[in-house]
Design brief:
This protein is of the alpha+beta class. It folds into two domains: about 1-310, no CATH class; about 320-475, Protein Transport Mog1p, Chain A, CATH 3.40.1000. Helices cover about 50% and strands about 15% of the residues. Strands 6-7-8-11-10-9 form a six-stranded antiparallel sheet, sandwiched between helices. Strand 9 and strand 10 (about 440-445) form a beta hairpin.
Amino acid sequence: MRSHVFAFLAAAVLASVAVVGRSQTAPDADGEHLRREGDELAAQGKWADAERRWVDAYSRTLPSVRDLTFRQPVDARMLDREALAAKVSDLFSASSGPSRDEADQIAYSHFGFFPRSTSLRSTSVAMHAEQTSAFFALDSHTLFLPSDGTVATATVDASRADTRNLVLQRGIVAHEMTHALTDQHFDLASLERWASADDDASNAVAALIEGDAMLAELVDRVGPNGRSLLRTSPTVFGFMTDLMMDAVRERGFGEAFDAAPLLLRERLMFPYVKGLAFCLSLTQDGSWTGVDRAYRDPPTSTEQILHPSKYATATRDEPTALRFTKDFPLPADSWELVKENTLGELQIKILLEPFFGIGGAMVAAAGWDGDTYRVYRKTGIEPAQSLLVWATTWDSQADANEFLQAFLRVFKPSDASPPPPSLGIPPRWKNYWSTDGGVSAVWRLDHDVYVIDRAPEESFRELQKWVKALGRRDKQFPARRVVTPTPPQK
């Protein structure tokens, strides 16, 4: 899926990079001719015809850019802007569903990512519908493009058929055609399913998929010397993209995007920006071999995306999988499990960012080694009451303590009261407190930091024992078997 924010980003990055070096494989002459025809049609405002030419052109030229061949023709369909937005909304809804949306809303609002009154479902759908310029549907292996060439209101005015608009829209076609190409080799739908039970791994997989397409788009956009981009320092690229994303945050890119909670905006930007730097870390030999290998052996955490050396080295730093080993001690008929998952380094950084800025949040979240949380909801009462139990583990005691201090500043309410006297906790222990919702605590044991929030007073001590009974191992996912997708039925 291609957001118009990143059409702007790709153009801005290339304007900042001097590209020199050896040429890639000689482009297909027929493909180049089709591309020029598409450019001419776009210059005349005939966007639908231009996009069809570009699809045909990239079917011929993209293999020399990405070092993969198309195994079957790409099914490309044109939709007007309204129909495209409706299709995005349908796909987004199908991938989540009301029950998952409600669970996410309860869990993420409990962490403090946004107020509980926020409608996560409607906000997410509105933002994705507004931001999506085109997309490749993994379920049907179909490419959907806007018939009027409108990539989005904040970036391109379809009535102005200037060179900037042309290049942006053509880049979007290249980006989505890259998804179509890699899908034919690595079955992207099965890759997403492979990580679907783990939010942090899902964000990492999205970064691989979008970072690959961003890089291919940039290589294509440069032209004959584009392959030199594969050797560009990911650190330099990352620095430039970070600066440009700061501009995106300040400039704003659409009403729904600007109004969305920070969590949704940052998760939308992450796969493109950090995924690009991650994929660049795998192409430093000038080839796509490392990226292809990553599809067969994917990253398992956003930590590996944010710090590519933790993925690419021989001794890969796999996250620690934590699990609660004992039965939940509160009555099952009174407390319903809403969500159990992993937050991960990316989302911890986002949680801390409003209080510490981007740099401070990155420092406090670095050193993450694994986490698991559960959010429960008390049944039969209104307004809903939720309970959070969260266990995290860190690379060192110093990392754990740094996170604990930062999280306390974020999480502890300013009007919190001391814990109830019945718990026998000295008032000077500021990491224990109580509110109308119950008793809360954040504490460290060695490399681990534990959180209990809004627990019933009478069950707090029992929950403390329960949350510390952790099983741990290196996080492992089932071996991924790549299945070649079935061509779409005409």
